[in-house]
């Protein structure tokens, strides 16, 4: 009897922990970007085809190497130890603003994995804060791009 | 024109008849050749089907090997970054890459022409070339082969992506090859099964034909043995064997047997007719002898009786004449005594009468002598008659013997006809 009760309790705890973890994982990014523009797949494609834009892939370099949007550059949102106060105990992730174009009126598109990709959202916010005026955020990211049937570049 | 000629050629032609006319030796040879040919064809089909299955299995195995090589390469290549570009690791990775490229080339060389997998193999080759180029590019800048180097990580990601795509393509190819191989194997198996069943049925048919071709003529031998056995046990050889114009060895033997039976039958019929003629002749002869003897005996008896009667009558007449003559002589003597006196007149008359009476007596005497001769002759006639009676008895006995012989022959002929009818009925019944 005790064993059965214990089993049910373990199962219940497992379900609760899993749900919390899943909620944490599945936490989505906002649908709007203050000071910037949110792009759809089609808008992104049109802009990429027009050219003269800067497409920043905020995922890891390894994932960038596995495939990225045409013309994209790796701008990994990672820990920047050059920022003051950053340490192993207090890691501060940041994009390398030096890799962004000098002209702050250039069109820049940030993207990452998808709607749950906070890297691109935060990178876009950083760029807006840095004074870039044409910051675009492709919220759908790689996932939406592939779902729309477009191909990646290697 | 062609049709009429072919129809003329085909006229009266049936496969069964032609087959039956074929010699047992040729039948066995033909069916053995047919069975061996069937076996060779079946073996050939089996070999071809087995070879196709083996080809696809090798293909499948090669794809699996390629998958393993790719996995090893990926692991090896990733380890390069974690060993910060250690040379042995790079060399091992290059060797594995070469092996992988070689396997892809081998696939392309052996199965690239197979249009079912042509596209997939081309994709594989294209991606393997891309992988080779990427790896070559990466290895040209060994300073980036570190985990911390973003460019190195990008290359690593690219290689990973390419290997992932290769894995994906290989998986699809493996699935396709396995599916096609399984389908092909099932198709070939079904094909082989149906071919085998057809060949089995045809072989059974051939064996039945062979059995009939060999055992059919042997039935003639059995029938021949039965006829000979029946003939030995008092039967007759009126029945013939059915050879159906067979030209087999046993068929020719049966034909010769039928010819022999025909000769025996004709001889038997000829003998029977001769015996009938003899019987009829003997019967007629017996009847004639019997009739003639009876006639002769009756006529002899009648004549003898009449002669005896005549002789008796003549004897009686002679006796009465003699008595009359004696009486006349006595009367003449009395008259002579009475008329002694009257010699002149009566004496002459008496003398005349006496003379006449003596003449009569003389005549009677001569008649008696003649009668005695006749009697003697009659006795001789009796002797002859007795001999004739003996001869008649002999003839009767002979005719009886002839009749018995004819009855025996008749009964034999009757038995012969009865046996013939029985044979006919039995043959019809069979």
Key structural traits:
heterodimer, A: 154 residues, alpha/beta, Oxidized Rhodanese, domain 1, two-stranded antiparallel sheet, 5 helices, globular, B: 430 residues, mainly alpha, Four Helix Bundle (Hemerythrin (Met), subunit A), Helix Hairpins, 2 domains, 8 helices, rod-shaped, disordered N terminus
Describe the protein.
The complex is a heterodimer of chains A (154) and B (430). Chain A is an alpha/beta fold and 154 residues long. Chain A has helices at residues 2-25, 41-50, 61-66, 118-129, 141-147, and strands spanning 37-39, 54-57, 72-74, 78-79, 93-94, 107-111, 134-138. In chain A, the strands form two sheets. Chain A has a five-stranded parallel β-sheet with strand order 1-7-6-2-3. A two-stranded antiparallel ribbon of chain A has the order 4-5. The longest helix of chain A has 24 residues, at 2-25. The mean pLDDT of chain A is 82. Chain B is mainly α and 430 residues long. Chain B has two domains: 17-214, Up-down Bundle (Four Helix Bundle (Hemerythrin (Met), subunit A)), CATH 1.20.120; 268-429, Helix Hairpins, CATH 1.10.287. Chain B has helices at residues 2-10, 15-21, 24-82, 87-111, 115-140, 150-232, 249-338, 343-429. At the A-B interface, α3 of A face α6 of B.
Termini separation of chain B comes to 46 Å
Please write the string of helix (H) and strand (E) elements of chain A.
Answer: HEHEHEEEEHEH
According to CATH, the homologous superfamily of chain A is Rhodanese-like domain
* CATH topology description of the largest domain in chain B: Four Helix Bundle (Hemerythrin (Met), subunit A)
Number of helices of chain B: 8
Global geometry of chain A: globular
Number of domains of chain B: 2
- The total count of strands of chain A amounts to 7
Tell me what portion of residues of chain A adopts beta-strand conformation.
15-25%
| CATH class (first level) name of the largest domain in chain B | Mainly Alpha
The biggest beta sheet of chain A reads: 5 strands, parallel
Whole-Å distance between the termini of chain A? 59 Å
| CATH architecture field of the largest domain in chain B | Up-down Bundle
How many DSSP H or I helices of chain A?
A: 5
CATH architecture of chain A: 3-Layer(aba) Sandwich
Order of helices and strands of chain B: HHHHHHHH
Query: What is the number of independent domains of chain A?
Result: 1
- Which range best describes the helical content of chain A: under 10%, 10-25%, 25-40%, 40-55%, 55-70% or over 70%? 25-40%
